[in-house]
Amino acid sequence: xxFGFLAMPGWTENKPIFNTDFETEMLTAGWTxxxxxxxxxxxxxxxxxxxxxxxxxxVVKDEDRSTEIGWESPPFAVxxxxxxxxxxxxxxxxxxxxxxxxxxxxxxxxxxDRYSLIQPAREWTEQEFYFQTKxxxxxxxxxxxxxxxQPLHIDDVSITPATRKDARTWADRLYAxxxxxxxxxxxxxERKTQVMGMNATQNENQLLPNTIGKLKQGKPLSxxxxxxxxxxDLSNSFLDVLLEDEFPQSAIAIRFTGRxxxxxxxxxxxxxxxxxxxxxxxxxxxxxxNDPKYLANPLSHIIDTTRKSF
Length: 310
Hints:
six-stranded antiparallel beta sheet; about 25% helix; about 30% strand; alpha+beta; Jelly Rolls; about 300 residues; 9 helices; 2 domains
């Protein structure tokens, strides 16, 4: 067991698990409002804009509304920890969101979602994303939300199962489009020495010996991400499949078990359900929802309780 601060085998079928062209009226098709019940004014089954057919989903947020609004799809079945490809057509003059929510077998919302940006475009554009089902999700729903009062139009939504290789290829394309961060090994080594009082090799061997050993030996590695929304965001980054590029013999699984806007003060009392029950090899603690005055003791309690259980 190790702590760090800041999977699953491939499987696929070509058959969509959810798709719609919005030719069936929204409420009849099972779509519901998020943050608004103003059907016809803010939440719209539009016959004025469409990519195919006659209709599309539309959201027009009132300029005086401070809360987020949107359309949420009816639930569809998913497999826990599996990867999926989401495609749709979008038209919006301002940035907007899509999100996926996950529910367990009892229909309870899971404490971990996936939000991503829809880039603005005045013409219809094809959007492609990938996501992984949060454990222990058995159903999911897709949400579309505008960020401003400018209309958001969505059409031709499709979700199909994907492999880890599919997700990795998509992630490589995405990250390749981002600005490169200049990495200077000498400066990083010096900074580590200043912070940890040891060089990088010592840091590796003394603080994460079991984790490094498993990766170098090609053994499976199970990681729990504990924290708030920052940890959830990291779990959505496909870090596991990207790490497998460097350690192709290791099957790496990352699982978010925290909760948004929740501090160590509360999480310290939930070590059994959020860490021990998942039997991880490595626990990464990452959060910003903490008062510095109450940081050290709860975090130490989490670490001590976990180590005593393994």
